[in-house]
Design brief:
Largest sheet: 2 strands, antiparallel
Radius of gyration: 17 Å
Number of strands: 2
Strand content: under 5%
Helix content: 40-55%
Oligomer: single chain
Structural class: mainly alpha
Shape: globular
Distance between the termini: 28 Å
Strand order of the largest sheet: 1-2
Number of helices: 10
Length: about 240
């Protein structure tokens, strides 16, 4: 099945700028054969010594996941290691700040974001909107101008990956390959809302396609639709022989 189109964000999940830029879904997402090949390669390809070639295949599964009950509302050392599988890392002091949570900001905000929150659920709009706990948590991890106490080494991409680790069904990974494949603007405050709109449009056709691709690739139901979305973008965006992810 092949098709492409523009799915507009409309008024879903108001952003800091007030405008949601629609998401154009590339044709690759409707090319079942090619996408299944990419997903199988990412999640099952092994190096000669037996470990997985793409370290990112461990991201959500390491330690049982960042959203399991004992650690869902705090960052732990496994989360710090997990983001390194996606080729990013905090500075040592930044990691300590995150883990020690001296002011309690991280645990307070995480506790306000339900573990089962999903981006495709309209009830989640208040979580990702400006002022919502997911938005504020991202800002505290990403915006050093507004929050001088953000962890050293953290920035927008690391913040997104940390949130994706803790709430994998609500927060999508957003990095340079996603940005380029989807032709997003340099300053993009509407990606979460635009993807939410895309997942809900046409009775959830795009989300259903992501789940269909997951099933066809046989990678397991513990890998959520948002992660399928990200891996396709990353694999399609370019690969190198020395890739750490």
């Amino acid at each position: 099945m092949r098709r492409t189109g523009v799915l507009y964000g409309g008024k879903i999940g108001a952003t800091a700028g007030g405008t949601v830029i629609g998401l154009k879904i590339p044709e690759i997402y409707w090319n079942d054969e090619e996408v299944v090949r990419l997903l199988v390669e990412y999640f099952t390809r092994r190096r000669s010594r037996g470990d997985l070639f793409y370290s990112g295949a461990h991201f959500e599964r390491l330690g049982g996941g960042g959203d399991i009950e004992p650690v869902a509302n705090r960052f732990d050392s496994t989360d710090v290691v997990a983001i390194t599988t996606l080729s990013v890392s905090l500075s040592p002091h930044g990691a300590l700040d995150l883990l020690m949570d001296r002011d309690g900001h991280w645990s307070s905000l995480l506790s306000q974001i339900p573990r089962d929150a999903r981006l495709e659920d309209p009830a989640s709009d208040k979580l990702i909107a400006p002022g919502g706990p997911a938005w504020e948590l991202w800002e505290r991890l990403a915006n050093g101008d507004k929050y001088p106490n953000k962890p050293d080494g953290s920035g927008p991409v690391i913040a997104g990956k940390l949130l994706a680790r803790k709430r994998p069904h609500l927060i999508p990974i957003y990095d340079i390959r996603v940005k380029q494949l989807f032709d997003r603007p340099n300053v993009d405050h509407s990606f979460w809302a635009a993807l939410a709109a895309a997942l809900r449009a046409n009775d959830g056709a795009f989300r259903n396609q992501l789940l269909h691709l997951r099933a066809e690739a046989g990678i397991g139901e513990d890998i959520g639709a948002l992660r399928v979305f990200d891996v396709i973008a990353w694999m399609q965006g370019g690969r190198g022989p020395n890739s750490a992810r």
